[in-house]
Amino acid sequence: MNHYTVGMAGHIDHGKTTLTKALTNIDTDRLKEEIERSISIELGYAPLKLNDEMEVSLIDVPGHERFIRQMIAGVAGIDLVMLVVAADEGIMPQTREHIDILRLLGIEKGIIVVTKIENVDEEMREIVELDIREAIEGTFLEKSQLFFVDSLRSVGIEELKKGIVIELEGRTSRDASGAFRLPIDQVFTIHGQGTVVRGTVYEGIVNEGDVLDLLPKRIPVRARQLQVHHQARKSGRAGQRVAVNVGGISKDEIKRGDVLVASGHYETTHTIDVGLTTVAKLMYPLKQRGAIKLHIGTAEVYGKIVFFDRNDLAEGNETIMCQIRLDEPIVTRRGDRFILRRPTPMETIGGGTVIDPHGAKYRFGEETVQMLEQKMDATPIERLQQLLLDKKLLPIKDASKEMNMSEDEMKELVEQEEKTFQLPTGEITSEKVIQSLREAFLIELERYHNEFPFRAGVKKAELVQSYTHTYPKRLLDWLLDEGHKQGWFVIQGPFAALSTHTPHAPRQWGKRVEHVLTAIKNEGLQVTPTSDHLTAQQIPKELHEEVTHYFYQQELLYQLDEKLSIHRAPFREAVAKLREETDVVFALKEAKESTGLSRKYLVPFLEKLDKLDLTIRHDQERKWRVTEVENWLGDKS
């Protein structure tokens, strides 16, 4: 199943919402004001069923100039655009601005849809088509398919659907291998469910139960439930419209433009280096450090523009290297597209690509411009490092395809680049990826030890599983082994732990735990339930299992049954005495005479010897495993 997002753009009242309903049977105008005024104010979304191989989300973008922010947010993550033009009006000013914005956002695929054909005759259709072809000449839409439809009577709708399939069939759905990122465009509350956010997944995969970060405030939340177009799902992936029921946060703490991301994988920034492509003509020159409004993802943030080769921007249709300094933090990555507008008087300045999401302060002059151009163009090594940061782990063959190189050239590049690592499997990763994952492991282990100090460590399988949504399992397994070799952490059986960690009772319970052990030791072999001792020391009931498991793991106590446990000292003394006083084979009566235990305690005592592989039972007798018991008694640890 491939996942796509198709956006619909065009002038107000050109029939986008009616066309959406004709295609999907869903009315995306849901606000009272939208219904009363018959205009779209907010973004509308609907699932578009085309075939069994495609899952398509259709976005109805508001056309009114006042709602340009929603329009930009809607088209920022689309794979295909449908430019809607009414047959009885033709190309309008808003249509042209939408075309400009789509071009600046790097949209590459489009379809032209002429609506309201019932209002014009055949001659007018031809005039409208000529008008459209002239308007899109030289743009990415120049060779696009053109369809005439009557949305109310469903004329031309099936042909349009087939046209959409043709355009999407040659396009791979968005790569879901990176760390999860969802720019939020809607926030609401559902009674009994809590806060829900919605958006188009830009990168990665989110799973039900994942711990996420809400940026830029960096609030940890949990994805409690997921839906794709009102259908419950266990996961959502890049290219899908996903609604996430987030726990641990109220609706008032979230706004459109915030970003939901995989925990620990994204940073915020106030300063970005960009390559800005301007529109053909500006109403007024844009001065150095002039006020701007940045639209990126679903965020709209004010700031100022900094030029390095001029003091104002007047002429259009050129690409310049510059910097944007923002009043509020945003979340972005290299290669993200953006739109720049003037706050007042309102107009679109241009758009382009983020070169560096964490820009610094540079000197004014050509040297800085050249540096930014080099950043934008990037060397093969820089491109490889960025690729590995995105993909985490790649076979040489796949990396060579991504970089448009031969496998031999890629191998040579890997050998030259010291910050690239090749695993025994032949796959490659980068020093930054290893460092990031190593730090993530160390942080998670430290968190686990703080939460569960009694335990030896986290289960390796659980540690690996918690990162498989972002990192390949092969890389996780390799780093665990490598980390153990390097001494970064310790692997003991099924557990992973920090090399500095020793299971222990935390300070607030330390003395009480010692008292429990002393009390059980003083009871000798005829013990009372362990839980009674824990309760007597006022250790909370929710900690009983944790403390008891710690006793067993450290072999401070030996468990006889569900309730009873013997301290290691009297237990070992009793085993040593029983071995000394019996032959290799002994009966129940001899054991009773040696230990002085009643049947209530004697049977579980002897069964424990069997479980420890110190004895083997044959009917009513037991046989010592002589070597094993001698080794066990000789082990003082």
TrEMBL record:
GO cellular component: cytosol
Keywords, sorted A to Z: Cytoplasm, Elongation factor, GTP-binding, Nucleotide-binding, Protein biosynthesis
Molecular function (Gene Ontology), one example: GTP binding
Boundaries of every Tr-type G domain copy: 1-174
Gene3D superfamilies (UniProt xref): 1.10.10.2770, P-loop containing nucleotide triphosphate hydrolases, Translation factors, Winged helix-like DNA-binding domain superfamily/Winged helix DNA-binding domain
Main location: cytoplasm
Listed NCBIfam families: selB, small_GTP
Protein function: Translation factor necessary for the incorporation of selenocysteine into proteins. It probably replaces EF-Tu for the insertion of selenocysteine directed by the UGA codon. SelB binds GTP and GDP.
Entry protein name: Selenocysteine-specific elongation factor
Species the sequence originates in: Halalkalibacter alkaliphilus
Gene name of the encoded protein: selB
